[in-house]
Amino acid sequence: MIEIRNAKTVGGRRIDVSIESDQKWVIQADAWTLFPALIDPHVHFRVPGASHKEDWTTGAKAAIAGGVTMVFDMPNNHPPCTTLERMEEKIGLIERELKTIPLRYGLYLGADRSSLKEIPRVKKKAIGLKIYMGSSTGGLLMDDRASLEEAFQLAAENDLLVAVHAEDEQLIQLHRKKYADRTDAATHSLVRNATVAAKAVELAIDLAKRHKAKLYIVHTSTREELSLIRQAKKEGISVFAEAAPHHLFLNESDYEWLGTKALVNPPLRTARDNEALWEAIDDETIDTVGTDHAPHTLEEKMQPYGKAPSGFPAIELYFPLLLNAAREGKLSLERIVSLTHTRPLEIFGLPSNDDVVLVDLEKQKTIDDTCLHTKVQWSPYAGRTVIGWPVMTIMKGHVYEVDKL
Predict the structure, then answer these.
(1) What pLDDT digit, counting tens, does each position of 178-207 carry?
(2) CA 54 from chain center: how many Å?
(3) Distance CA 387, CA 343 (A)
(4) How many CB atoms lie within 10 A of CB 232?
(5) Residues with catalytic annotation?
(6) What is the pLDDT of residue 150?
(7) Angle at the Cα of 326 (from 320 to 328), degrees rounded to 5?
(8) How far is C-alpha 208 from the geometric centre of its chain's CA atoms?
(9) Does the model's pTM come out above 0.70?
(10) Cα–Cα distance list, 300 to 185, 261, 303, 365 (Å)
(11) What is the reported pLDDT for 114?
(12) Domains and CATH numbers, the chain
């Protein structure tokens, strides 16, 4: 049995908690606040095909260090997870790697034109159907109207949530030609500008409305998208919006010091978009925060623009970043719980569990890349001083002390 004594709730009450376990722990939690463990609905743990960037052993350690006990992994692997057989193979690989830290997880099925028939076959195994409306890491892409119509219809018929990477591929290609003579990293935000995102979101919402599908828009990043999503919610369309931490805590000004390390899809946006996202968190237009944890090695990221890949790690840092933001008055602790636990459970139709994380809201640390658990051991947040850190994560009746991982 795990006994947590005198912990503070996010509402400020003092409580004792007992958790069934084969371990025997008595945790005196007077100085700590108890949160439900986090759910990250958007990770790329790189298995199979790119385990030099991350695997499920290092990814699980990074997750636990960040108070996360459940992740939903994306399908853009090598080979991509687009069939029942590939999903079962992927599950086998994951299970072998999770012997030390048995992280909870779900897997998305990747949508491409040749594998839509797989949707009925995986509906009981997949957490959702992932559609890349614009090109990103890996080869998955679905940008023609007929295939999108079929995908949304099949997903709706099989009660499978549709998660979309909403960028318009035709506009991306047009802008690549327009800015072909530019080689600076900031070009990325011009090639994949706000219109690229908004046009795809508008189409996705229309498809969800037409087919009565459940739509989850990943890494929402612009004012224009938020306006469309807000209106769709008012109309009763089943649409949900995720924000990524880099679109909350970074913007186009960070290209100056991060260079190609700042590349991500969709790209960093303006400071006004940062503000719009915080407003959307406040009015609940944003439903969840998903990290889009997408590690690449520093060697890969330091390549010139055009060769450097998009994405970076974030899973063990987004909870501290959000806690620090709460200290600054940008959101409440209760809202953090909603964004990182309650709403993911509701949207993805999952049962609750007794996983928790104990947090020291007064603990101050400067982010140090060498202390990260992700295999690539770097982040775009290095050097930031953050107040509020997880100290213990309790998952499946096991206690993980963050400083001892």
Answers:
(1) 999 999 999 999 999 999 999 999 999 999
(2) 15
(3) 25
(4) 23
(5) 292
(6) 95
(7) 110
(8) 21
(9) yes
(10) 14, 9, 6, 28
(11) 87
(12) 37-352 (3.20.20.140)
